[in-house]
C-alpha cells in the first residue's frame, strides 16, 4: 500500500482555518498562536495562505523543501507558501490559466520577503538553459535595485517598501520564463525631504555614502559623513543588521546583471547626489524697493556643485528658485518667491526629481526584462502592495493607500465567491447565495465621479479663487454629510451629537477594516503635486542626458498650458487598470501578519494580530468558505485515505472511486445531510465529520500497524528457523561423510606412517650431528687463519714505525749536528716542555668540568712540575664560573641569596633548626597582606613597606601557652597585631630592640629583648615562637645592620637565657624531651622564675 502524507497528518492546531471548530475570533487567534509557537508560520483558509512573520531564519526554505513541494497537491503537505506558488505555476503551465498572486498586509508583515520566496520558487522549478537562466537571474536581480531606491527603514520595518509593485512574469508554452513587466504605484516621495522620527530616507542615499569608493564620491562631490546632508535623518542613520556598504555593492552588481550600462549607472548616481546637494541649499530673505520680500541663496557652494553634476547654468537655477513665471493666454507674469515659497520649490524639485528617477528605473528595468517573442504568453502576476494603514496622524498618503486596499478587498470577496460558485456549478452542487458585507458602498464614497471624495478634491484643486484644506472639508461636509460611512465634526453636530475624538480639521471614514481618522491638512497640496514651470524648464536646459528625459514638459517648444493631472486622479486610474488586470487572472492570496511591533522573534501580541485579522477580513473569508461545505476532496485521494475503515473497501476497491466512497460513508453511518457527492469530489459540510473520520483512521492505523508487526515478526522467525534447520541437515551430512573417510584412512596407514616417521627422525638426527661437526672444524680453521693474519699485520706496522723513527732520528742528527752541537740539549728540552704543555692544555680542554659552582671535579695533574699551574688554573676557572653564575641573578634573587648567606653566618653549626631551613625559600609576606581584604585595615595602619608578614605565637609567662599574633616587620619597626581582628597590639621601633635570644635546638622559640628605659619596654620583652624563625631573625639582623645610625643587633644562641616580663626576669630553659612528649615542642611554667621548653629529639 502506498502511504501518502496529508495536511491532516501530524497537525499542530488546525492547518486550514475552514476546519476550525468552534469558529470564533478567539479560537482563530489561539490557533494562529499555537502554530506560531511551534514554528508553523503558514496556515490556510481554503486556498488562501496566512503568513506570520517569524522575524528570524527558519530551515523551511531550503532546496530540499522546494523539491518536496514540487508537483504536489495543494492539501497534500503541511501549509507552506511553496504549495501556493506550485499550485499557481502548475495551473499556468498545464491548464493555460493566467495567474496572479496578491500579497497584502501592513508594513513589517513580510510582504516583500513573501514575493521573493514566490519568485525564487518559480525560478527553481521552471526549466533550465542558458537563456532561461539569464532571464530568471534578471527577474530576481531586479528586486535589489528596486529595494535600494524604493525601500526605507521605518519604525515598523527595517526594509519597508514605500511603493506598490506589481510584476507580470511571462512564460512560454513549456512554462519557461521569457521576461516580465513591472508596474509601480505611489512612491512615498515626501520621504525624500522629511522623515518621521526614528525612520530613514531611502536606502540608496546611505548605501552610496557608505559603499562607494573614494574616487566615486570625489566625482560626485560627496563625503561619507551623513550629518552634512539635511535630507538624511541622523537618529536612525545606521540600522542593526543592515550593511549599507555591502548592499551598495550588491545593487551595483544587480544593475549590471539587469542590463544597465556603466554610463547609465553613473547618471543615476549623479542624480542621487544632486538630490542630497539640493537639500543643502538654504535661502535668506532680501527686501526690495517695492516692499516685497525676495529670497536669495545663502551659500552658493552646494548650488554650484549640484549645477556642475547636472550640467545646468548656475544663474538659471538660482533664478528659478527666486522667481515664478505664470502664463495666461499670451501674457507672462513673473513674481518673486519669498523664503517659504523658495523652500517649497526646492523640496518639490527634490521630490519630483527622485520620483521621476524611480519611474525611469522601473521603465529601464522593463526594457531589459521584457519578453522578446511576439507570440501570446502565459502570465503570472505578483502584487506586493502596502497594506491597510491606521496611524495616529493619517494624511493623504494613508487615504489613497486605504482606498487601494478597499478595492483589493472588494475584488477579493468577488473572486472568492465567484470561485466557490464556479466549483459548485462544476461539481453539480446546488449553489445558495451567501450573505456578506459588500464594501462597494465605501469604494463609491471615495471614487464616484460625481460626488466621490477624490472627485471633490480634484474639483477643489482646479477651482479658481482661494483654495484651502478647510474649503475642501466644507465641501465634504456639504456633499457627504448624510453618508453612513462618513463622519465629521460638522456632520456629527448637525445630528445633535458630540464627539470630542473628532477634531474640527478631520473627517472619519468607516472602512471595512475599521474607522480611520484623516487630517485634511496637506490634502490639496499633495493632490496638486505642483512643480513650478521655471524649475521644469531649468532642468530641461541641463546638459545631463537623463535629466532631459525626466522633465520633458520643460521643453519651451512644447509648452502646455493645460494643468497636469492630480496625484489622486493618476492613482485612481492606475488602481482601476490594476483591478481590470487582476479580474482577468486566476487569483491566489497571501495574507501577511505581523506578530509584534518589536521586530523580535517568539513574541505574539494578541491585540495587534487581532487588529490585523479584522482589517484583512480573515474571519469573513472563513465564513464565506464555510457557508456551504467546509471541506471538499477528490474521490480517489479520499478513498485512498479512508479505505481501511470499511471491510468492503479494504485493502483494494475494484470499482469506480465514487462508488467506493459512497460504500465507505454508508458503512461509517455518516448522516446524509453532512455529505454531498459532486462529479469528481465529495463535499463535507461540518468539520466535525472530517475530524470523526480522522480519529477513526488514526485508531485503525494503530491496529493495522500492530497486525503488520505481528505478521512480519512471525514470518521472520519462521524463515529464520527453517533456514537454520536446513543448514543443520546439510552440515551434519557432510560432517558424517568426512568423519567416516578419516577413520578408514587412519586405520590403514597408521602403522606404515609410524615406521616411516621413525626412520626419518633418525636420519634427521644424524644429519644435524654431521652438520654441527663440520661447522665446528670450519669455524676453528677460519679463526686460526684470521689470528695469523692479524699478528702479521701488527708486526708489520710495528716494524714500519721503528724503521721510520730511526730514520727520522738519523736525518735530524745529521742535519743539526754541525750547528747545535753545544745547545742541542737546551733546545730539545724546550721543545719537549712545549709539547708537553700543549698536550696538557689540549687534554684540559677536552676534560673541562661542568659550569656548576658546586662541582668539585678537576682533571688529574699529569706531571709533577705542573702542580702550581694546575692549582692556579683550577682557582681561576672556579672564580670565572662563579662570576658567570652570579651574572644570571636578578636583584630579587640576589637579595634572597644574600639573606641565605647571612643566615648561614648566624646559625650554621649553632642552631639545630638551620639545616631544615636551607632548602626553604624566604618568602617574606606569607599572609599576602596587601592583597588579602581581611587585612586591609591592618595594611593601611602600617605606612611603610612590609618586609615580612607571618603568624607567630606570643608565649604567656603565666601558663606557657601561645596566642596567635600577626608579626609585621618593616624597615624601621616591627608590629604585633591580633590575628582575628587585625588590631595592633604592639608597635616597637627597631632602635629599641637590643638583642634576640634563641636556643641551639630545633625549636622555633625566640625572645626579642628591648632597651631598658625605652617606651616600648614598659611591658617587657617578647617571647615568641614561629615556624619561620630563621627567616625572621635573619631579616631582623639584616634590617638593623643596613642602617648606619643603629647598633648591630646581637644574636644570643643559648639553651638558657633570661627574659624581662614587666618587673620580673624569667629564665627560659630548653631541654631534650622524652618519647612521652611526642613530636611537638611544649612550654611549661615550673615556678615564677622558670619556663621550661621541652624539645623532641631528632633522629
From TrEMBL:
Residues 911-1097 form the TH1 domain. Residues 575-597 are annotated as: Actin-binding. Keywords: Actin-binding, ATP-binding, Calmodulin-binding, Motor protein, Myosin, Nucleotide-binding, Phosphoprotein, Repeat. It is found in: Cytoplasm, Cell cortex. Residues 12-698 form the Myosin motor domain. SUPFAM superfamilies: P-loop containing nucleoside triphosphate hydrolases. PANTHER family: MYOSIN, UNCONVENTIONAL MYOSIN-IB ISOFORM X1. Belongs to the TRAFAC class myosin-kinesin ATPase superfamily. Myosin family. This is Myosin IB. It comes from Myripristis murdjan (pinecone soldierfish).
Amino acid at each position: 500500500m502506498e502511504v501518502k502524507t496529508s495536511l491532516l497528518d501530524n497537525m499542530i492546531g488546525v492547518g486550514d482555518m475552514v476546519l476550525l471548530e468552534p469558529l470564533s475570533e478567539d479560537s482563530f487567534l489561539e490557533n494562529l498562536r499555537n502554530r506560531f509557537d511551534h514554528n508553523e508560520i503558514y496556515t490556510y483558509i481554503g486556498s488562501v495562505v496566512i503568513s506570520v512573520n517569524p522575524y528570524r531564519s527558519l530551515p523551511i526554505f531550503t532546496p530540499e523543501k522546494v523539491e518536496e513541494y514540487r508537483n504536489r497537491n495543494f492539501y497534500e503537505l503541511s501549509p507552506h507558501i511553496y504549495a501556493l506558488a506550485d499550485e499557481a505555476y502548475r495551473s499556468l503551465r498545464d491548464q493555460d490559466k493566467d495567474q496572479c498572486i496578491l500579497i497584502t498586509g501592513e508594513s513589517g508583515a513580510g510582504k516583500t520577503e513573501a514575493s521573493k520566496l514566490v519568485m525564487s520558487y518559480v525560478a527553481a522549478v521552471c526549466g533550465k538553459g542558458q537563456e532561461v537562466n539569464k532571464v530568471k537571474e534578471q527577474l530576481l536581480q531586479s528586486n535589489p535595485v528596486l529595494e535600494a531606491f524604493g525601500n526605507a527603514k521605518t519604525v515598523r520595518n527595517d526594509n519597508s517598501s514605500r511603493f506598490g509593485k506589481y510584476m507580470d512574469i511571462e512564460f512560454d508554452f513549456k512554462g519557461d520564463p521569457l521576461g516580465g513587466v513591472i508596474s509601480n504605484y505611489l512612491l512615498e516621495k515626501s520621504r525624500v525631504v522629511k522623515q518621521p522620527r526614528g525612520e530613514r530616507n531611502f536606502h540608496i542615499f546611505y548605501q552610496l555614502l557608505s559603499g562607494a569608493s573614494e574616487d566615486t564620491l570625489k566625482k560626485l562631490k560627496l563625503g561619507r559623513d551623513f550629518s552634512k546632508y539635511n535630507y538624511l535623518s541622523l537618529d536612525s542613520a545606521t540600522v542593526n543588521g543592515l550593511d549599507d556598504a555591502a548592499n551598495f555593492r550588491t545593487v551595483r552588481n544587480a544593475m549590471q546583471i539587469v542590463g544597465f550600462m556603466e554610463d547609465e549607472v553613473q547618471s543615476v548616481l549623479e542624480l542621487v547626489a544632486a538630490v542630497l546637494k539640493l537639500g543643502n541649499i538654504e535661502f535668506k530673505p532680501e527686501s526690495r524697493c517695492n516692499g516685497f520680500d525676495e529670497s536669495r541663496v545663502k551659500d552658493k557652494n552646494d548650488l554650484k556643485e549640484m549645477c556642475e553634476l547636472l550640467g545646468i547654468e548656475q544663474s538659471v537655477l538660482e533664478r528659478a528658485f527666486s522667481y515664478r513665471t505664470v502664463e495666461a493666454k499670451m501674457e507672462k507674469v513673473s513674481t518673486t518667491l519669498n523664503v517659504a515659497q523658495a523652500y517649497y520649490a526646492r523640496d518639490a524639485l527634490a521630490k519630483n526629481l527622485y520620483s521621476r528617477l524611480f519611474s525611469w528605473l522601473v521603465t529601464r528595468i522593463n526594457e531589459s526584462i521584457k519578453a522578446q517573442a511576439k507570440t501570446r504568453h502565459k502570465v503570472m502576476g505578483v502584487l506586493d502592495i502596502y497594506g491597510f494603514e491606521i496611524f495616529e496622524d493619517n494624511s493623504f498618503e494613508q487615504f489613497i493607500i486605504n482606498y487601494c486596499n478597499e478595492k483589493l478587498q472588494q475584488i477579493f470577496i468577488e473572486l472568492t465567491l465567484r470561485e466557490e460558485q464556479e466549483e459548485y456549478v462544476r461539481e453539480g452542487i446546488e449553489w445558495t447565495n451567501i450573505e456578506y458585507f459588500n464594501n462597494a458602498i465605501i469604494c463609491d464614497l471615495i471614487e464616484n465621479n460625481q460626488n466621490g471624495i477624490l472627485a471633490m478634491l480634484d474639483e477643489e484643486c482646479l477651482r479658481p479663487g482661494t483654495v484651502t484644506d478647510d474649503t475642501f472639508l466644507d465641501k465634504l461636509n456639504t456633499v457627504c454629510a448624510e453618508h453612513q460611512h462618513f463622519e465629521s465634526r460638522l456632520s456629527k453636530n448637525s445630528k445633535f451629537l458630540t464627539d470630542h475624538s473628532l477634531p474640527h480639521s478631520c473627517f472619519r471614514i468607516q472602512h471595512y477594516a475599521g474607522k480611520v481618522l484623516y487630517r485634511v491638512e496637506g490634502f490639496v497640496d499633495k493632490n496638486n503635486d505642483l512643480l513650478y514651470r521655471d524649475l521644469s524648464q531649468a532642468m530641461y536646459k541641463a546638459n545631463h542626458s537623463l535629466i532631459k528625459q525626466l522633465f520633458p514638459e520643460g521643453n519651451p517648444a512644447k509648452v502646455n498650458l493645460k494643468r497636469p493631472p492630480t496625484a489622486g486622479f493618476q492613482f485612481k486610474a492606475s488602481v482601476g487598470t490594476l483591478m481590470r488586470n487582476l479580474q482577468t487572472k486566476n487569483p491566489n492570496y497571501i495574507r501577511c501578519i505581523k506578530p509584534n511591533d518589536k521586530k523580535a522573534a517568539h513574541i505574539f501580541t494578541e491585540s495587534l494580530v487581532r487588529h490585523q485579522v479584522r482589517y484583512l477580513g480573515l474571519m469573513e473569508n472563513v465564513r464565506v468558505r464555510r457557508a456551504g461545505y467546509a471541506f471538499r476532496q477528490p474521490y480517489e485521494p479520499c478513498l485512498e485515505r479512508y479505505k481501511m475503515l470499511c471491510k468492503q473497501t479494504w485493502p483494494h476497491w475494484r470499482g469506480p472511486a465514487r462508488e467506493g466512497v459512497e460504500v465507505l460513508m454508508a458503512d461509517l453511518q455518516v448522516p446524509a445531510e453532512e455529505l454531498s457527492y459532486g462529479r469528481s469530489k465529495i463535499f463535507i459540510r461540518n468539520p466535525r465529520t472530517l475530524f470523526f473520520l480522522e480519529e477513526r483512521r488514526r485508531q485503525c492505523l494503530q491496529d493495522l500497524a500492530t497486525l503488520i508487526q505481528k505478521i512480519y515478526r512471525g514470518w521472520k522467525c519462521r524463515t529464520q528457523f527453517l533456514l537454520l534447520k536446513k543448514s543443520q541437515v546439510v552440515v551434519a551430512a557432510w560432517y558424517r561423510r568426512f568423519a567416516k573417510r578419516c577413520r578408514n584412512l587412519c586405520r590403514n596407514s597408521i602403522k606404515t606412517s609410524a615406521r616411516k616417521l621413525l626412520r626419518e627422525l633418525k636420519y634427521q638426527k644424524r644429519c644435524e650431528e654431521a652438520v654441527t661437526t663440520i661447522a665446528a672444524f670450519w669455524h676453528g680453521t677460519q679463526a686460526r687463519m684470521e689470528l695469523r693474519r692479524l699478528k702479521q699485520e701488527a708486526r708489520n706496522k710495528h716494524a714500519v714505525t721503528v724503521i721510520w723513527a730511526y730514520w727520522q732520528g738519523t736525518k735530524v742528527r745529521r742535519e743539526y749536528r754541525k750547528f747545535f752541537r753545544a745547545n742541542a740539549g737546551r733546545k730539545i728540552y724546550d721543545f719537549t716542555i712545549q709539547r708537553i704543555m700543549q698536550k696538557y692544555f689540549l687534554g684540559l680542554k677536552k676534560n673541562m668540568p661542568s659550569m656548576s659552582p658546586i662541582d668539585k671535579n678537576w682533571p688529574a695533574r699529569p706531571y709533577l712540575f705542573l702542580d702550581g699551574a694546575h692549582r692556579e688554573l683550577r682557582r681561576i676557572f672556579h672564580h670565572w664560573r662563579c662570576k658567570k653564575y652570579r651574572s644570571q641573578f636578578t636583584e630579587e634573587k640576589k637579595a634572597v641569596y644574600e639573606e641565605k648567606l647571612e643566615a648561614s653566618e648566624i646559625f650554621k653549626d649553632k642552631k639545630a633548626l638551620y639545616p631544615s631551613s636551607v632548602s626553604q625559600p624566604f618568602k617574606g609576606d606569607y599572609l599576602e597582606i596587601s592583597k588579602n581584604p581581611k587585612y586591609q585595615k591592618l595594611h593601611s595602619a602600617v605606612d611603610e613597606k612590609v618586609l615580612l608578614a607571618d603568624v607567630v605565637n606570643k608565649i604567656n609567662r603565666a601558663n606557657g601557652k601561645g596566642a596567635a599574633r600577626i608579626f609585621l616587620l618593616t624597615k624601621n619597626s616591627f608590629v604585633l597585631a591580633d590575628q582575628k581582628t587585625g588590631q595592633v597590639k604592639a608597635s616597637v621601633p627597631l632602635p629599641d630592640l637590643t638583642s634576640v635570644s634563641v636556643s641551639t635546638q630545633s625549636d622555633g622559640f625566640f625572645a626579642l629583648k628591648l632597651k631598658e628605659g625605652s617606651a616600648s619596654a614598659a611591658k617587657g620583652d617578647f617571647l615568641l615562637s614561629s615556624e619561620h624563625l630563621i627567616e625572621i631573625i635573619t631579616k631582623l639582623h639584616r634590617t638593623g645592620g643596613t642602617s648606619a645610625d643603629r647598633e648591630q643587633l646581637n644574636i644570643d644562641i643559648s639553651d638558657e637565657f633570661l627574659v624581662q616580663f614587666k618587673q620580673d626576669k624569667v629564665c627560659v630553659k630548653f631541654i631534650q624531651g622524652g618519647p612521652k612528649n611526642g613530636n611537638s615542642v611544649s612550654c611549661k611554667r615550673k615556678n615564677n622564675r622558670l619556663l621550661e621548653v621541652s624539645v623532641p629529639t631528632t633522629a
